[in-house]
Amino acid sequence: MLGSFDAVLLARIQFAFTVSFHFLFPAFTIGLASYLAVLNGLWLWTRDHQYLDLFRYWVKIFALAFAMGVVSGIVMSYQFGTNWSVFSDKAGPVIGAPMAYEVLSAFFLEAGFLGIMLFGRERVGPTLHMIACIAVAGGTAMSAFWILSVNSWMHTPAGFEIDLETGQFLPTDFWQVIFNPSFPYRLMHTVTAAYLTTAFIVGGVGASHLLRRRRLSEPASASTRTMFSMAMWMAVVVAPVQIFLGDLHGLNTLEHQPAKVMAMEGHYESHPDGAPLYLFGIPNDEAQRLDYAIGIPNLSSLILKHDLAAPLDGLDTIPDDEQPPTFIVFWSFRVMVAIGFAMLALGLWSLWARVRGNLYSAHWLHRAAVVMAPSGLVAVLAGWITTEVGRQPYTVYGLLRTVDSAAPLDAAAVGSSLVAFVVVYFAVFGAGTYYILRLMSRPPVFDEPRLQDVAPGPIRTAGITPAPEEAVRRADDRKGGA
Predict the structure, then answer these.
(1) 47 vs 233: CA distance, rounded Å
(2) Using an 8 Å Cβ cutoff, are 234 and 345 in contact?
(3) 3-state SS of the chain: helix, strand, coil percent to 5?
(4) Are 343 and 291 in contact (CB under 8 A)?
(5) Where are the domains of the chain?
(6) Is residue 311 within 8 Å of residue 274, measured between CB atoms?
(7) Has residue 464 got a pLDDT over 50?
(8) Dist. CA 148–CA 111, nearest whole Å
């Protein structure tokens, strides 16, 4: 049955499935690592026990999410050598080094200090423990730096030449490879999205416990109130910044990938006298038109060109075989933007409640925060879909097509591994996610239990082997002499 499918399409679906699963965890842990560093710093500065309680509460969740992020990420690297071996052969000389740097610098930094962060507070002292927290937070951000540099190069390739004999991309300037034209915008937009994702998860957890205490007619703990307050401050400050960064990223995309923006806007036709902003429509690639379109005249030109009458090209200027799938890009972009403005609205709502003095008693605000808790995860997935599907039909934009990047594998082989991934991922990561939700369902308490080692001493990975008989006899003699 799987043999009737297209092998390239199945390989794309498999990579999309694994990267989507993986991306959920870094999108959460990048922000959570920084949040933990802030909490630990506030505890050392103020000695207010609620910050220590919040640190111990969230560090358990961080440890589990970090582990699942690492495991889910390993699988993707193998797909470069299996499903996408041709792409790896051609682009490897350029993207191989940055991906190796991500492991050697960022991941090793996180892994090296993670144990100290989790278990070392009472063993290494407060200064080194704080350094470990900062190192883990910096490592997660550095990891995003290298991965997004590689991904951005695939969208806006620079600093390379093509070997005419092998067809390989060979680096000529690694600074241009790393700091390619779209990288700064993509990095700022993605990392900010990660911070917002964490803020809304933390805020949703805090709001759920505020609602539960209210139903039980019990006062919420100071830790719960602080958790919710800090998350709402992040929403107020970061949401408008994210919208601004998204606008800059869009302008950069218009310059370097105009077909993607045309698909995002649903502009099948060119508009010489100003383009409308379509709020709704059903993209029809076959007929090359947007059915049931509802839009605001000239607003797209104002946003993209800062001029109501500025002309904008449409997909009618792009050959059919170079157009991205408009339906997916059009709607994923609108999901991302709608969530972004909903985040801004919730942040402003919380600011109004704070000014009125009922931030902790506004139950409708708390209900909205609970609903919005997973919104950041949905938004980053929608943004990722917009970015990656909008790059099609290329893996290296304008230079290497997706169909020419796939390994010569049979569809049945790719399909079988895809089914196996789906089953294993939902079983393993579904169980991990369920346990994370169980941890979140319990509110932080005073003197929150800390993570503890399983054993009081070093782990003997080889087991405990009996000492030689002669050594035992000498030890007994020493005891007798004493």
Answers:
(1) 22
(2) no
(3) 70, 5, 25
(4) no
(5) 12-180+409-455, 184-407
(6) yes
(7) no
(8) 20
